[in-house]
Design a protein that fits this description.
single chain; alpha+beta; Nucleoside Triphosphate Pyrophosphohydrolase; four-stranded mixed beta sheet; three-stranded antiparallel beta sheet; globular
């Protein structure tokens, strides 16, 4: 089994809208938290800063650690199933925009980014980790 360690950000604007990026890779897609995989030797907070910048154009300051989430994905749910199942370890932080302008990633695994009210997020085709992070951030009730 493979393991992928990644770090993601819950970013809200002053009106409570949430910043999301749209993942689109080899026919699989959905709205997701800005963030991504750690590079070797990189601290998770560095990953969040780098990935949010790449996917959205914004510079962020990383805040509180919201929590850690994990999920196991069978090969048929993966873009590349050849390596077998994969465990995703997701480190979730709050972050705040401190600079930059909204600029979706070009030539990456994300193809769009935007700000959404919580009602709009509810209506999006989104990956499950969005709601996990929303619960950790107090934006959704914990079941």
């Amino acid at each position: 089994m493979r393991i992928r360690v990644a770090a993601y950000a819950v970013v809200l604007d002053p009106d409570g809208r949430q910043l999301l990026s749209h993942w689109n890779e080899r026919g699989r897609s959905g709205w997701t938290l800005p963030g991504g995989g750690l590079e070797f030797g990189e601290h998770p907070t560095e990953t969040v800063v780098r990935e949010v910048r790449e996917e959205t154009g914004y510079d962020v300051e990383v805040g509180e650690l919201l929590g850690i989430d994990t999920a196991v994905f069978p090969p048929e749910r993966l873009v590349d199933p050849s390596g077998g199942a994969m465990q995703a370890l997701r480190i979730l932080y709050r972050a705040a925009v401190v600079g930059g302008t909204l600029t979706p990633e070009a030539d990456g695994s994300s193809d769009d980014a935007g700000w959404f009210t919580q009602a709009e997020v509810d209506a999006l085709d989104r990956v499950s980790s969005v709601d996990t992070a929303r619960r950790m951030a107090g934006l959704l009730p914990v079941p």
